[in-house]
Design a protein that fits this description.
This protein is an alpha+beta fold and about 450 residues long. It has 14 helices and 24 strands.
Length: about 450
């Protein structure tokens, strides 16, 4: 019986591999690995936080391993794992379109499942409509392929995800825990809200059914509504499209009627810092806004050469020796000139008690927006810690067409306090519980309304 099972599994593996293209030559596989390794060594702003011995040993080991990969998918998985060891949300390797089009995450034929990290558990928060009673919202995935979910994530998912913060790593791991090529099967054990369990074999095939439960929310760049007669709500869902500034300004005549304001940034994954700043300037009396302080690495080859013979004790009282020593260790910083942004705005301002809603998906330029608000006494942040990653990525392409990027800029608070790797913290922490999902409640918004009513 064992021999038959092994033959069946091997045959499935061969069929699965046959679906994946193998278009990248061994030479290009080594070149792509080396290209990424080189760009990190030369440009990664957080190289000083990397275990360099491990980094170099991993690179040398991968020179052989990438050549032995059977297809482009396996090759990019190794690159993603190598990249993930840097633990930075703005430094990534992504699958090329030729691979991504062959991957599924939520599709399992007659089932479609969406998972959310709730208290470090993989919880079903959306299904296809016809399965909402069979696998109700709040169902937990407790085992995958015979091992508990925590172990499965640690071994098969987490090592391939680039993240600056542990909680975002878990969020993405749960969301992507079943991402794999079409035809891949998983043995899954579910635990229902009533405590009963059920085993299912799920195989990645296209789900024909379109309807889901609960329905997807309509995404809009900008949202406006009245919560109560004097509390206005706006949702700024991206700073990647300058049209949001126009949409905001168009609503100003009505917004001026508000006595209190809620600004929701929980869906805002970033974009341009300037776009967010141009909205914020209407919401403050200040003429100066203090944004993040930034730095990068400065590489002058001669200083690196001199640094080979420079010891740490030589740096005392010597700028030259300090630059040589730090350059040799790839850690000489270039601080960009820092000054506050001057606001010249003749239009009327809207300065009222303001609650800013933040969460794990508040990222990058949206975090820069929050840095600007740090000393605004009429503003308070409510929700969960933010994404904890920003910077200036340098993009480039790898063999096979996969995009990659390396973060080249470090951002901090004006006083040097770091938020990358930690997230910007809320003044009042509120998170959505499993009970809230089951009852379709938004405790962050409810808390903000309650807070503003007291003010």
């Amino acid at each position: 019986m064992k021999q038959i099972l092994i033959i069946i599994l091997c045959s499935f593996g061969l069929n699965l591999n046959a679906q994946m293209i193998n278009s990248i030559s061994k030479a290009d596989k080594v070149y792509g690995l080396s290209k990424f390794w080189q760009e990190v060594n030369y440009n990664f702003v957080y190289l000083n936080k990397v275990d360099r011995v491990k980094w170099e040993n991993d690179y040398k080991r991968l020179i052989t391993e990438v050549q032995e990969t059977e297809n482009d998918y396996e090759y990019y998985r190794l690159l993603k794992k190598f990249c993930a060891s840097l633990k930075d949300g703005h430094t990534n390797v992504s699958f090329p379109d030729t691979i991504r089009s062959s991957l599924y995450n939520t599709y399992f034929g007659e089932y479609r499942l969406f998972l959310t990290n709730i208290d470090d558990r993989a919880i079903v928060t959306r299904t296809n409509l016809s399965k909402k009673d069979e696998i109700p919202i709040g169902t937990e995935v407790i085992k995958v392929n015979g091992v508990d979910t925590k172990t499965y994530l640690e071994q098969e998912v987490i090592p391939y995800i680039s993240s600056s913060t542990d909680y975002i790593l878990m969020d993405q791991a749960v969301w992507k825990m079943f991402q794999a090529p079409k035809g891949t099967s998983f043995d899954v054990t579910f635990k229902f809200p009533n405590g009963k369990t059920k085993d299912l074999k799920l195989t990645h095939t296209k789900t024909i059914e379109k309807e889901v439960y609960p329905d997807f929310e309509d995404w809009q760049l900008f949202e406006f509504k009245w919560i109560e007669k004097d509390i206005a709500y706006i949702s700024l869902n991206s700073f990647g499209d300058p049209a949001i500034d126009t949409l905001f300004i168009e609503k100003l005549p009505e917004l001026y009627k508000a006595k209190k304001l809620i600004v929701d940034l929980r869906k805002n994954g970033g974009g341009s810092t300037n776009i967010g700043r141009d909205i914020l300037m209407y919401l403050t009396k200040d003429t100066l806004l203090y944004g993040s302080k930034t730095q990068s690495r400065l590489h002058i080859p001669s200083f690196k050469a001199w640094g080979q013979w420079t010891e740490e004790k030589d740096t005392i009282g010597s700028k030259f020796a300090t630059q040589a020593y730090l350059s040799y260790h790839d850690n000489f910083p270039h601080y960009f000139p820092y000054e506050a942004d001057t606001i010249k705005l003749s239009a009327k301002r809207l300065v009222v008690p303001t609650a800013i809603l933040i969460g794990h998906n508040t990222a990058s330029a949206a975090e820069d927006f929050l840095i600007y608000t740090e000393n605004q006494k009429h503003m308070i942040k409510i929700g969960e810690p933010t994404f904890g990653s920003t910077g200036q990525p340098m993009p480039f392409e790898l063999p096979g067409g996969g995009p990659a990027r390396v973060c080249t800029k470090k951002d901090t608070y004006p006083n040097g306090k770091e938020f990358v790797g930690f997230g910007i913290q809320p003044d009042i922490e509120v998170k959505k519980s499993l009970e809230d999902y089951l009852n379709d409640r938004d405790p962050v918004l409810e808390n903000a309304i309650e807070y503003l009513k007291k003010d």
